[in-house]
Structure formats: structure tokens, C-alpha cells
Specification:
- The chain contains 13 helices and 21 strands.
- The chain is an alpha/beta fold and 429 residues long.
- The chain has one domain: FAD/NAD(P)-binding domain (3-Layer(bba) Sandwich).
- Strands 4, 6, 7, 8, 15, 16, 17, 18 and 19 form a nine-stranded mixed beta sheet that branches. The chain has a six-stranded mixed beta sheet with strand order 10-2-1-14-21-20, sandwiched between helices. Strands 3-9-5 form a three-stranded antiparallel beta sheet.
- The radius of gyration is 21 Å and the shape is globular.
- The protein binds flavin-adenine dinucleotide.
- Flavin-adenine dinucleotide binds next to helix 1, strand 2, helix 2, strand 15 and strand 19.
């Protein structure tokens, strides 16, 4: 066995970024994935480097909006009924963190990790041949009414307080930046620190090829379990093949929960399925990513076409996708781009690995320090992937990470930490 060796489970953006960080630090790396070059969340996402997203999903007062969103069967939020009983602990924790003090704590941790994103992403993109794929053009969040913007002002102020640049714009200023938008847009916010990439699939493909060219081994296989050994750990594949290493990193996206549970760690990570449609020749041109705040979807001008994406569907990992959601998102887009041509749109869906507190799980497993977790990045896996890779490479080498990773610890899901009696005011909010 080489001096330090690592097996990374998962070849999504997070696993590949971890492998990059390890390799750059002299760690020999093997990546195991059931389908290394195949479809995954990292392949069809909206392409946003969303560093300004520092407010978690669960905030005070959210419960007032949820029933309204769920009234529409193809609306922004859906729960598949058969999955709801299994989702209850996740939902309980989601509600529990929606207090002003928890939102402050979580936002600070998100601002910390997002604040490092360009420090880690730019060198990675430059080295592997993706320098021209990052478009630093900011993003526009648009609203159909003054009320819409005012209702979100608390979040915008919180972001400002955490160092996010926020510029309010009038309808005329927005149309000057994005003439394709219909006059239904009344105001909005420009966030110049946001970027987008040309094509998420290209990013994982180029990174994977670079890793192989630079010595990483990729093994195709379904990991059945991860087992600590006396001087490291081993992965056991379906069929019994075993591979050992000094360290094993679990970066298996929305599938990570099962492997962590086998290790004896309690983790609340759920599939939050999202949908996109990519239209190669939409007949409308955008300069930058646009976020439609009232209707909860986004449009990103990728090199392969206009990608319209959104939806948050909690139905577990096994249920078939409902592409009526992709169609519903295109219908919404027509509202803002009346001239859009939808022919030839390619529909896709993927499992966001989402935790109730919107924070990723990065750090050592409770029972074994040789097993390291890197999953649960929810809406921000593309954004936070390279920084996660940097943090994990520090952990592999026994160095102190550059940011405080305590908020990302798997220990936060421990049953001892969360009980009704810790937050009896939950139902009074
Ligand atoms: C519609 C949509 C839009 C999004 N937009 C953005 C965005 O604009 N910006 C952003 O930052 N993020 C965005 N995201 C989120 C982002 O895509 C995810 O957070 C990220 O891709 C997760 O990466 P990952 O590597 O953790 O997981 P994945 O990409 O899902 O990769 C996990 C890998 O693990 C493998 N695997 C799992 N279990 C096993 C096993 N037992 N054995 C072997 N292999 C296994 C899988 O095959 C897979 O290849 C979006 C997501 C969606 C769905």
C-alpha cells in the first residue's frame, strides 16, 4: 500500500473534486462508481456557481408559503405520499432549524464555505483545462411585483450582512441587461459574485479524464458496504470484490445515507429530485443566469442551449421521475420569454443530496476516523465541490482545514442532539 492511499466512492462533482484534491497532495487515489461516466446530479444541473446562496431553505415563516406551493401538483415543492412516513425525521429536523438563531448559525457556515469557492475552483478549472468554462457574469433574480421583492428583503439583507454584493434594479435596468425578458418583470436584484459554467456534464467529463491521465484509477462497481480495518478501511463491492486503503471517502451523493448508516452514523440526507429541460435553439438569448423568484425556477444560458430548471420533489431514490414537471417549468418560462421555441427540448432529472439544514456533511465518521464523508450538498454541490475537495484533502493529510468544519459534522444528526424538548416552541412559530 502506498504511504497514503484513498478510495473515493462516487464520481460526481464532489467525488471527483475530492480525488483532485487528494492527487494534488500526493495521495494515490482510486474512484469507485457504479457508472463513472453516467448520469448523476452533477451531470444535468443548472450550472450555477451560486456563492451568494448563503440563506438555508428552512427559515422562520416558511410554513405559511408551503401549503400554497403544494396546492399545485406540478408546483415548486412536492412530496410523494408513499415516501412521507420515511421522510418524517428529515421534516422534523427541517422544521427545527427554521429559527432565527439557527438560520444565523447556518448562514454563517454557508458564507464560510462559499467564501472560499473561487479560491479552490479557479485553480482546479485552470489546471484541468476548464478555465474558459467559467462565465463570471453574475446572476439576476427577478420579481413580478414590488411585493415579491419586499417579501424577500429579509433574506437579501441577511446576505448583505454576510458580504454578498446585492444591487437592486428597476424594470428598465433589468431589460437593459437581459432584453429577452418580458415586461412582466417589474424589479430584481443583481448579484455580481455569482457565475455559471458552460456545461456541467463537460466539467465532470474533463475532470474525470484529467484524473485518469494523472494517475487516478477508476473502478466500475456498486459499493455494497464500507468496513473499517485495523489500519484503514475497505470497500466491498456487490459480488464480493474487496479493495483496501488507508482512508475511504464517501461521496456518493443522495445514495450516501445508506453507507453512512452501515457505519453506525445517523444521517438525514434525502433525494430532493429536480428537473430541467435544455433547449438547443430556444430563440431567446440570455447573458447570465436568471432566477425567477416568484415561481421558483431558473434559466441558464449554457453552451449546449438554454437550461430551464427547478422543482423540489421528495419521493426517495427509487420512484420514477415525473417529467410533467420539466414540461411545467418550460410553460412557466414561456410566461417570461413569450418568444421561446420549445422544440427539441431535452428533459432530465437528478437527485440533489439534501440535508434538513442545507449544510453538507464533510468530516470524519463517528466510529472510524479512516472514513470521511463528503456529501449532502443539496442545491450547491457544483458550487461547493472544489472547496469540499480541498477540505477533504486536508483531512486525509491530517491538516487543519482552512475553515471551521464543525457545522458540517455528521454528529449533528445524532439523536441525542435533537428532541422535541430542545425546541418546544416549534409549533408556536
Ligand atoms: C435540477 C438541479 C439543478 C441544480 N443546479 C445547481 C446549480 O446551479 N449549482 C450547484 O452548485 N448545484 C446545483 N445542483 C446540485 C448539484 O447538482 C448536486 O449538489 C451535486 O451534483 C451533487 O454531487 P455529488 O457528487 O454529491 O452527487 P452525484 O453527482 O449524484 O454523484 C454521486 C455518484 O455516486 C455514485 N454512487 C452512489 N452510490 C454508489 C454506490 N453504492 N456504489 C457506487 N457508486 C455509487 C453515483 O453513481 C454517482 O455517480 C442542482 C441539482 C439539480 C437536480
Amino acid at each position: 500500500m502506498p504511504e497514503v492511499s484513498a478510495i473515493v466512492v462516487g464520481a460526481g462533482i464532489v467525488g471527483l473534486s475530492v480525488a483532485y484534491g487528494a492527487l494534488r497532495n500526493g495521495v494515490s487515489v482510486m474512484i469507485v462508481d457504479r457508472n463513472p461516466e453516467g448520469d448523476k446530479a452533477s451531470f444535468g444541473n443548472a450550472g450555477g456557481i451560486a456563492v451568494t446562496e448563503v440563506v438555508p431553505a428552512s427559515v422562520p415563516g416558511l410554513w405559511k408559503k408551503v401549503p400554497f406551493w403544494m396546492l399545485d401538483p406540478l408546483g415548486p415543492l412536492a412530496l410523494r405520499m408513499a415516501h412521507t412516513p420515511r421522510l418524517l425525521p428529515w421534516l422534523w429536523n427541517f422544521a427545527r432549524v427554521g429559527t432565527a438563531s439557527e438560520v444565523r448559525r447556518i448562514s454563517t457556515a454557508l458564507a464560510d464555505i462559499n467564501g472560499r469557492v473561487y479560491d479552490d475552483l479557479l485553480p482546479l478549472f485552470n489546471e484541468v483545462g476548464l478555465a474558459g468554462d467559467l462565465l463570471q457574469k453574475g446572476a439576476l433574480t427577478v420579481y413580478e411585483s414590488e411585493n415579491g421583492l419586499r417579501n424577500d428583503m429579509h433574506d437579501w439583507d441577511a446576505k448583505r450582512d454576510l458580504g454578498v454584493e446585492v444591487q437592486e434594479l428597476t424594470a428598465a435596468e433589468i431589460r437593459e441587461m437581459e432584453p429577452a425578458l418580458s415586461p412582466i418583470v417589474k424589479n430584481g436584484v443583481f448579484t455580481p459574485q455569482w457565475s455559471h459554467i458552460k456545461d456541467p456534464k463537460r466539467v465532470v467529463d474533463v475532470l474525470r479524464h484529467w484524473l485518469v491521465a494523472n494517475g487516478a484509477e477508476i473502478v466500475r462497481g456498486e459499493v455494497d458496504r464500507v468496513v473499517p480495518t485495523s489500519d484503514g478501511a475497505k470497500v466491498v463491492l456487490d459480488g464480493g470484490r474487496e479493495m483496501t486503503a488507508r482512508k475511504i471517502v464517501i461521496a456518493a451523493g443522495a445514495w450516501s445515507g445508506r453507507l453512512a448508516k452501515q457505519m453506525g452514523d445517523r444521517v438525514l440526507v434525502e433525494s430532493e429530485r429536480g428537473y430541467t429541460t435544455t433547449i438547443a435553439s430556444p430563440g431567446v438569448a440570455l447573458e447570465r443566469e436568471v432566477i425567477f423568484a416568484d415561481r421558483k425556477f431558473v434559466a441558464t444560458p449554457l453552451s449546449i442551449g438554454l437550461r430551464i430548471g427547478g422543482a423540489a420533489e421528495f419521493g426517495g431514490l427509487e420512484v420514477a421521475p415525473n417529467y410533467a414537471r420539466s414540461k411545467a417549468l418550460v410553460k412557466l418560462a414561456k410566461h417570461y420569454f413569450p418568444d421561446i421555441r420549445e422544440e427539441g427540448g431535452v428533459e432530465w432529472s437528478g437527485h440533489r443530496p439534501t440535508t434538513p439544514d442545507s449544510l453538507p456533511v464533510i468530516g470524519r465518521s463517528g466510529p472510524s476516523s479512516n472514513i470521511i464523508y463528503a456529501f449532502g450538498h443539496g442545491h450547491l454541490g457544483l458550487t461547493q465541490g472544489p472547496t469540499t475537495g480541498k477540505i477533504v484533502s486536508d483531512l486525509l493529510l491530517g491538516r487543519k482545514p482552512l475553515i471551521d468544519i464543525a457545522p458540517f459534522s455528521v454528529a449533528r444528526f445524532s439523536l441525542k442532539k435533537a428532541s422535541f424538548y430542545d425546541s418546544p416552541d416549534l409549533f408556536l412559530r
